[in-house]
Please model this.
Amino acid sequence: MRLQFIGCGDAFGSGGRSNTCFHVASEGANFLIDCGASSLPALKRFGITRDDIDLILITHFHGDHFAGLPFLLLDAQFTRRTRPLTIVGPKGIETRLALVREALFENSSKTKQRFDLRLVALEPKVTASFGAVNVTPFPVVHGESGGPFLAYRIETEGRVIAYTADTEWTETLIPLGRDADLLIAEAYTYDREVKNHLSLKTLEAHLGEIKPKRLILTHMSDDMLARLDALDYEAASDGLVIDI
Ligand SMILES: [Zn+2]
Ligand SMILES: [Zn+2]
Model:
């Protein structure tokens, strides 16, 4: 299984990085995790065939995780996509997606799609299956607006990928990431505690309980990016490809 970081930046473009979007492809699965505002140009930059993507998992409705969808859907329509597409996210995804599509491209949410577009709202802690991909959402803590907030534990072809999404520390991150083949974790700051976000030091204090087989840090602010060379952790970069 191959995972590519299409974008691993925060909402502010720190380090010139694209907004969050990860692409996972294997024999039987092809999906995105999040689709931030800059995702379409980033997908094109890395040569990802958008037509092969069957599923998009959205963690929450902040623009750096969600606002790429209007562009992606418009592009799909104009490139005559016919393959069905499923977009999965927290409760309210149908309304939120229609709102952002209308805000960015008027009438785009009302145009008949050439392809079957299915929107699915997930309940926390209830596993849902999409073809070969089993997704368990965990509730996380990320403020008042832009939620509900979900982190995902994704199991496909015997491999587990866990992604914290944006969150401050919460105990649900332990079952989320426990023994995962790959844990992608927000490390927004090094040790400074910022409301609604996770610092590396806080994450580090719990790694013994989570015990991921591999950890990759993402969604880093300038504070973290400046320290990367001195850290003993693997960190995401736009375009980085991982074999899982
Ligand atoms: Zn974010
Ligand atoms: Zn966020």
Notes: The radius of gyration is 17 Å. The chain has a mean pLDDT of 97. The chain has seven helices and 14 strands. Residues 106 and 233 are 44 Å apart (CA to CA).
